[in-house]
Design goal:
Structural class: mainly alpha
Shape: rod-shaped
Distance between the termini: 16 Å
CATH architecture of the largest domain: Orthogonal Bundle
Number of helices: 4
Order of helices and strands: HHHEHE
CATH topology of the largest domain: Helix Hairpins
Number of domains: 2
Helix content: 55-70%
Strand content: 5-15%
């Protein structure tokens, strides 16, 4: 999976969950309490964001039960969102760490290899020639934007 798709997948999940909770919450207040759409959306939003303005209208027993359900769902939403954000950052850090460890291991196993300084087009062309000749080599490049061989 490409990094862009990975980020989209991990950040779109909380957005979809929030949208679903907003629809369910708004519909719930409309059905349970008989409120109009705006009041239902507003009550759902202030409940999920824990703003605490107070109820739009006094709640019935069923409305209170529904609000408890909505608050619990909101807590789940925050947990999923935090998990998704942490997952993106930790996964990237872990992937970078593993890549560096594999690269260090490969480099430590090299003997009588050629070192190519730089990662520009000329260095890549030289690397391709060494690859064709089955010579072991390694690139050393400071710039993360440099061209690299795959």
């Amino acid at each position: 999976m490409t990094p862009v798709l990975y980020y989209i997948r991990n950040f779109s999940r909380p957005v979809l969950i929030l949208g679903t909770i907003m629809v369910i919450g708004s519909a719930g207040y409309h059905l349970v309490e008989g409120w109009n759409l705006l009041d239902s959306i507003f009550m759902t939003l202030i409940t999920l964001t824990t703003v605490g303005y107070g109820e739009v209208h006094p709640l019935t027993q069923n409305g209170k039960i529904f609000t408890v359900f909505l608050i619990s769902t909101g807590i789940f939403f925050y947990a999923v969102t935090i998990n998704s954000i942490l997952d993106v950052f930790l996964e990237q850090k872990f992937s970078d760490f593993m890549f560096q460890m594999r690269m260090k291991k490969k480099i430590s196993e090299l003997k009588n290899h050629i070192i190519i300084a730089g990662g520009g087009r000329m260095a890549v062309a030289i690397g391709e020639e060494f690859e064709k000749a089955k010579k072991e080599f390694v690139f050393i490049e400071k710039s993360p934007d440099a061209i690299v061989m795959e």
